[in-house]
Write a structure and sequence with these properties.
Distance between the termini: 28 Å
CATH superfamily: Gcn5-related N-acetyltransferase (GNAT)
Number of strands: 8
Largest sheet: 8 strands, mixed
CATH class: Alpha Beta
CATH topology: Aminopeptidase
Number of domains: 1
Radius of gyration: 16 Å
Number of helices: 6
Order of helices and strands: EEHHHEEEHEHEEH
Oligomer: single chain
Strand content: 25-35%
CATH architecture: 3-Layer(aba) Sandwich
Strand order of the largest sheet: 1-2-3-4-5-6-8-7
Length: about 200
């Protein structure tokens, strides 16, 4: 079972069915916050719907096609971070994340991204990790820029948000770049999933 300690306050764990109500309440509390960039949140209208989504996420993890982890900060679920659409043939994934509005500005997501990036390169043996954000989503874009990802281009009109098409900024990092990235701790080792990454402190 996936479990990754980020620092003394933060831990990543697979979301399970027993978290359905807690995750639904988090979606409900953050609906207005998430909806401008993540309109899928409007589909999460009950704990039962969330439970069905979690079942799909568990199957994807078992097939090593995705990893949907909850973010626990001081024991409270406050967001998610995921490997999406894992391409096992080409050793590639996209990193996706969102955080409760009340927990923003504390370096939580930057620390979690560091942990998942290291885990992806060292344990899942990815050759490439991408982060894709709407060009106007400056808060989300700040994370790959802070962590040393390269802006590889702008994909035009790729997503429909409410009433308009938006462009996406595509960021990427290769395993060979991770090994020497100062923003990521010069390739610290995650070793096993249960081991502590206490050196990963919020930026």
């Amino acid at each position: 079972m996936f479990r990754l300690k980020v620092n003394e306050q933060t831990e990543l764990r697979l979301v399970e069915r027993r978290h359905s109500e807690e995750l639904f309440q988090l979606f409900a509390a953050n609906r207005a916050h998430l909806q401008p960039w993540h309109p899928w949140v409007n589909l999460m209208q009950s704990a039962r719907v969330v439970e069905k989504a979690i079942s799909v996420w568990q199957d994807l993890y078992a097939a090593r096609r995705a990893c949907h982890a909850g973010i626990w900060f001081n024991g409270h679920l406050c967001g998610m971070i995921s490997y999406m659409s894992v391409d096992t043939a080409n050793h590639w994934t996209a990193l996706f994340y969102w955080l409760d509005e009340a927990h923003q500005g504390q370096g939580i997501m930057t620390a979690c991204c560091r942990a998942m990036i290291a885990h992806g390169f060292e344990d899942w043996n990815f050759n490439r990790i991408t982060i894709e954000c709407a060009t106007e989503n400056t808060r989300s874009r700040a994370i790959p820029e802070r962590l040393g990802f390269k802006l590889e281009g702008i994909v035009r009109g790729v997503e429909w948000l409410d009433d308009r098409f938006v462009d996406h900024a595509m960021y990427g990092m290769l395993q060979s770049e991770f090994a020497s990235a100062p923003e990521l701790g010069h390739g610290f080792s995650t070793q096993k999933e249960s081991e502590s990454l206490a050196a990963l402190v919020p930026a």
